[in-house]
Amino acid sequence: MNGETGITEAGYDLDKGITYKGYRILASDEKYKFGTLVDIHLGSGETIHGIVLDRGGTVKGNHFDIVYENRDKAYDFGIQDVTFEIKGRLDI
User: Fold this and answer.
1) What is residue 92's predicted lDDT score, i.e. its pLDDT?
2) Best exposed site among 9, 25, 28, 52 by fewest CB in 10 Å?
């Protein structure tokens, strides 16, 4: 996010929610362009369908941050080993 303003680096206002066009908002390394669609497969069998709309200062390489409603929910999710697939890209 752009500091603590609730605006992603791609300009999306998180006051509108944690999804964009049905995709969960993700932060990623700059190697993934804004609008990149990513399926993140969790160990539980759940899949998160995400879209890159933000950057993270410590998010490097093939790591993603998933936007949550609040810090507690993010900490509850924690750091997980997952697999992912790049599914395409939306123009934003």
Assistant:
1) 87
2) 9
> Cα 39 from chain centroid?
10
What pLDDT, on a 0 to 100 scale, did the predictor assign at position 56? Answer: 81
Query: Is the residue at 62 inside a domain?
Result: yes
**Domain with 44 in it: what CATH number?**
2.40.40.10
The H or E element spanning position 60 is none
Give the pLDDT means over successive 10-residue stretches in the chain (92 positions): 72 95 97 98 97 91 93 93 97 90
CA 71 to chain centre: 14
> How far is Cα 90 from Cα 92, in angstroms, rounded to an integer?
6
- Specify the 3-state DSSP secondary structure of 75: helix
Count how many domains the chain has: 1
